[in-house]
Amino acid sequence: KMYRTVKATSGRQIFQPLHTLRNAEKELLPGFHQFEWQPALKNVSTSWDVGIIDGLSGWTTSVDDVPAETIGRRFRYDVALVSALKDLEEDIMEGLRERGLDDSACTSGFTVVIKESCDGMGDVSEKHGSGPAVPEKAVRFSFTIMSIYIRLDEEEDAVTIFQEQKPNSELSCRPLCLMFVDESDHETLTGILGPVVAERKAMLDSRLILTIGGMQRSFRFFFRGTGYDEKMVRELEGLEASGSTYVCTLCDSTRAEASENMVLHSITRSHGENLQRYEIWRTNPFSESADELRDRVKGVSAKPFMETQPTLDALHCDIGNATE
Question: What is the pTM of this model?
Answer without folding.
Answer: 0.77
